[in-house]
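residues and backbone:
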Amino acid sequence: MKKAVVISLGGSMIFKGSAINVDFIKRFAGIVRGMESLGIVVGGGSMAAKYIEAAKQFNEDNYDLDEIGISVTHANARLVKAAVKGARFFDHLDEAVYFLQAQHGIAVMGGMFPGETTDTVAALLAESMNARFVNVSDVDGIYSANPKVFKNARKYHVLSPSQLVKLALEHDSRRPRENFVIDALAAKILARSGVEAHFVSGRNLDDVKNAILGKHHSGTVILE
């Protein structure tokens, strides 16, 4: 059987400005449709950010801000599930794992717990399935700093698990909507189990395909 794959699909790819990026969702669905043993965990994106920023005006605490963000990830995940024929949506990790092990189909999820990002959910799912982890966002790899802000940020093509954890710890504030390309907890989960991990941009679907297959791409690979 082919190696299982878990995709952490950033919510940044679900939206284009304030509109839902239906074109991307269709093209992404075309890549993964018919795959076996595939988990897709979808983030909240700019819409989650808008809800969270609005809720801050009413002095909601971080726990409730996270709950709001999780609700948006579920809506995004259901949208992706609708686009991928035969996919199933799951609220709970153990149910998704059982389905993937028994049916070898496509399981789609959003967030689960406050304080835990969708990257962490995807990392746990990848660990439980001994799967390849693929992070798809609007950033084409891991950088030394936010490349959208710092033009001289260095891009890493290969990192060790410990290097990834170090970078994530430096940038992970644990506040809603304020995290590195991957959060520190997710990075630690990938590192502790030696999960094969790839970081690519959803704007380059050839890279996405190659990362899913474990082939060369222009993003970042995490190797022991």
